[in-house]
Task: inverse folding
């Protein structure tokens, strides 16, 4: 490393430290924080983490080697396995993992104050979330794109594999239902948003055929074409909403649910290059564009953070989240810091598309970018007056909020500016859209366009969610096919149309039913707890992978975040159980049944998690302490002479005497 580069990294570290000083109140503790400091602190940490920690993980821990032929090349079938340009790969992976979690979770967690959420977003992503995504992605890539449950089955046996598969399937369905609720509420009787989102489907088809059939490899051309058409769709949505054709897109909730189900089914069974990948790549431009604009707005306008660093609700009793900061902050933020759902994408579509092993670092980088999205969402919510923020996200009256010490100030004015009533709209989506619109409208030349930006922000949120739904449905289809393949072998073939169609209908029907009936009344905290528990299981399986790679000195990389997230999540599950039972005892009928169902589901997924952790600990003890032999399902195929066509499998015999070197010394 040159002297100039070393000086640059040192200056970046110093700048980040100063920014964290302002954010944490070590510098000017009695003044309100400027939102710009949050952006600077997060950006510095992300860049340093990707350059040093991410590179160290790739070179020393996982030892990425471009001479190894990836399954996308070896098993290329043009449908599920296909080598993908690195830029397109990053766009697809980021679009697939960046759903509603990093948008809504930090907004809801702002109830506790902006500082705890900000610290968990940046530190959790660097040390836990990005590590999980990257290691699971590499593990799956080196096992022919196997899913997380299949890796668990191959590496840890039937008990852990079956428990992981059941937990994963439950979590995916609940997650897709929760995200579906959000998108239905965002597009309900919203002609502009519905038209814009609908247009991304034919645009995706056009991009897919253009890149795969008409002009293979012309990534720049298809990118320009897609961005232009997307901008026209956004602008055209407002025209359609004001025309006589608006009724065609002003859909009610039931129609939206089944339309959404039809789209999920279509995206699940069609070849990935035809709709899933180009639409994900396309939506990434809108996502990154909005995040860039939001960051630019924060930099140019330097908005003041109105939310306190820590509020009185950190001890519990909050009007949005009734629990205390520990553990509910971590459960609520969910995807922005660490997300078990990401492990399904990292062992689902992405490992089947990696052309070279070195491209797997997209797993680490994409998680950092998603965390930055979470920081932007937190800033957008925190620039609102706390009383206005609570007036939007709760159904409490102005007098009740004033009694809590957070009286609404500008809520009536904000409603007038965005052109719709915004009070009593809990869930985070509306307050996020209002915060984003207020920042955008403050940019030069944007005054008076707050209503436009408000609708644009809602479309932005819906696009985030839909991309996760189509990818999540396909991932769930893979999981069901693998499970059913143990009973009937043809299901194991991902391209077997009867199996693909039947499992897609099963998955789509499950989450569409939950959305349509609305039986799960507290779906977000349950989704958050289940999602974090899946993250714990993914890190657990990642630890097993490291053990079988003879990487015992580096076990702390996954074991430490696994332990922390596991304790937090199991504590949260216990408190959620008590909360559900307490509420169910005070109501009757359908609402009581829904709460009891929530309680049963939380207990079930927690028990499955404990089974996986317990069985894994037992096997680790055998491998590390008792020196029991083990096998690995890792596939190593090296390129002979640099040509994939002359690839030769390489079988590496481990020395019988080779033992483990524990991180703290000793050998066994």
Result:
């Amino acid at each position: 490393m040159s002297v100039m580069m070393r000086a640059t990294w040192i200056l970046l570290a110093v700048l980040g430290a100063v920014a964290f000083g302002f954010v944490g109140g070590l510098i000017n503790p009695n003044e309100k924080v400027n939102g710009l400091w949050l952006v600077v602190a997060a950006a510095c940490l992300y860049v340093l983490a990707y350059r040093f920690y991410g590179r160290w993980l790739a070179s020393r821990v996982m030892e990425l080697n471009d001479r190894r032929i990836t399954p996308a090349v070896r098993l290329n079938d043009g449908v599920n396995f296909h080598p993908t340009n690195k830029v397109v790969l990053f766009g697809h992976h980021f679009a697939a993992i960046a759903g509603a979690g990093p948008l809504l979770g930090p907004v809801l967690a702002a109830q506790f104050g902006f500082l705890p959420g900000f610290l968990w977003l940046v530190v959790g992503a660097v040390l836990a979330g990005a590590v999980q995504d990257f290691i699971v992605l590499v593990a799956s890539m080196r096992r022919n794109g196997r899913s997380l449950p299949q890796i668990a089955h191959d590496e840890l046996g039937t008990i852990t594999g079956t428990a992981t598969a059941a937990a994963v399937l439950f979590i995916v369905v609940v997650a897709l239902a929760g995200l579906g609720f959000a998108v239905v509420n965002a597009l309900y009787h919203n002609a502009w948003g519905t038209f814009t989102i609908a247009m991304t489907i034919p645009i995706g088809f056009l991009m897919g055929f253009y890149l795969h059939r008409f002009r293979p490899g012309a990534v720049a051309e298809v990118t320009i074409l897609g961005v232009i058409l997307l901008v026209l769709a956004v602008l055209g949505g407002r025209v359609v909403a004001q025309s006589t054709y608006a009724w065609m897109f002003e859909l009610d909730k039931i129609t939206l649910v089944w339309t959404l189900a039809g789209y999920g089914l279509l995206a699940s069974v069609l070849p990935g290059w035809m709709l899933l990948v180009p639409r994900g790549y396309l939506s990434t431009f809108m996502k990154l564009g909005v995040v860039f604009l939001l960051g630019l707005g924060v930099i140019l306008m330097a908005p003041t953070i109105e939310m306190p660093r820590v509020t009185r609700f950190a001890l519990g009793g909050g009007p949005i989240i009734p629990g205390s900061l520990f553990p509910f902050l971590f459960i609520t933020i969910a995807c922005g810091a660490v997300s078990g759902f990401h492990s399904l994408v990292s062992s689902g579509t992405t490992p089947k598309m990696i052309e070279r092993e070195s491209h797997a670092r997209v797993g680490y980088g994409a998680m950092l970018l998603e965390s930055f999205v979470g920081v932007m969402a937190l800033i957008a919510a925190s620039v609102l007056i706390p009383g206005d923020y609570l007036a939007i996200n709760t159904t409490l009256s102005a007098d009740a909020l004033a009694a809590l010490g957070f009286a609404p100030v500008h809520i009536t004015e904000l409603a007038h500016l965005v052109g719709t009533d915004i009070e009593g709209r809990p869930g985070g989506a509306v307050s996020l859209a209002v915060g984003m619109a207020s920042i955008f409208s403050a940019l030069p030349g944007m005054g008076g366009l707050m209503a436009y930006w408000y609708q644009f922000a809602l479309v932005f949120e819906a696009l985030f969610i839909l991309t996760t739904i189509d990818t999540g449905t396909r991932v769930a289809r893979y999981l069901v096919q693998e499970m059913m393949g143990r009973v009937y072998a043809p299901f194991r073939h991902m391209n077997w149309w009867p199996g693909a169609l039947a499992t897609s209908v099963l998955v789509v029907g499950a989450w569409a039913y939950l959305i349509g009936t609305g039986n799960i009344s507290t779906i977000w905290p349950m989704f958050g707890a289940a999602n974090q528990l899946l993250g714990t299981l993914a890190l657990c399986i990642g630890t097993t992978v490291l053990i079988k790679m003879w990487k015992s000195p580096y076990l702390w990389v996954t074991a430490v975040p696994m332990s922390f997230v596991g304790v937090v999540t199991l504590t949260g599950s216990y408190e959620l159980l008590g909360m559900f039972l307490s509420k169910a005892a005070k109501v009757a009928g359908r609402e009581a049944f829904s709460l009891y169902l929530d309680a049963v589901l939380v207990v079930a997924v927690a028990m499955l998690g404990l089974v996986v952790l317990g069985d894994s600990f037992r096997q680790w003890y055998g491998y590390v302490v008792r020196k029991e032999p083990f096998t690995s399902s890792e596939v190593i195929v090296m390129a002979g002479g640099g040509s994939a066509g002359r690839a030769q499998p390489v079988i590496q015999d481990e020395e019988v005497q080779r033992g483990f070197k524990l991180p703290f010394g000793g050998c066994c």
